[in-house]
Amino acid sequence: MLKNASLKEYTYTKIGGPADYLSIPKTIDSLKESIDFAKNKKIPWMILGNGSNVLIRDGGIEGLVILTTSLVQSSIKDTTIIVQAGAPIIEISQLARDQSLTGLEFACGIPGSVGGAIFMNAGAYGGEIKDVCKSVTVLTKEGIVKKLNADRLNFSYRSSSVPKNDWIVLEVELELKKGDYPSINEKMEELTFLRESKQPLEFPSCGSVFKRPEGFYAGKLIQDAGLQGSQIGGAQVSLKHAGFIVNKNEATAKDYLDLVRHVQKTVKNKFDVDLEKEVRVIGRD
Asked: 156 catalytic, yes or no?
């Protein structure tokens, strides 16, 4: 258990203030113990996956932050992969490929954990985690462990019932299909090339900042509004992909959020389209 721990190094944006307490449990039992610690001290607590789709404000986070990045155990039974919530979804897509299992190729470039993918129904290149999710084991806010079939998760675009019910994802069953290794590998190499050629991976970022507005593409709207390269402090609208805001030079969360609001306001004024944030914003100002 760490006190007053900086969260910058644990987020993809490399932005964020400290957590009052930080725990990185290696087992489900130690995760439960961390929650008990917070309850006994009567302090708030929250789960943070691998920090890929989150922006932590400069004031940090009150209470206890529990990182799931060490909960990474996985096993395979026939065409089913059973994996703990903290495992990187990219690595699980590679595991599936190595076992000649198809269905998870779309996730080969998603920079998030398996639990985070369930939390927000992560997707890319025409695939979503809901397409391969068989069941999810969660810890409820009452401290009960439940195994839920995928239809209980109410998956929709970048959403699930996990955050609405304050569930903690512990383990996920992914149901795939037998495939052909060369074909799976070729598809993953193609998607990796597309990602690396189009996305600004050379700078820290949270990925796509905005959800896709109905009938439009956020990046195209931002580009057409002449906002590429716009910068506030150390935060910049990427010159490579307008849907990304990158931490170009020691940006603060305030820089980032000021730029988000500037983009939203400009796109609204020019095209009368509301851009809704996809990135989660948490913490104290």
From this structure: no
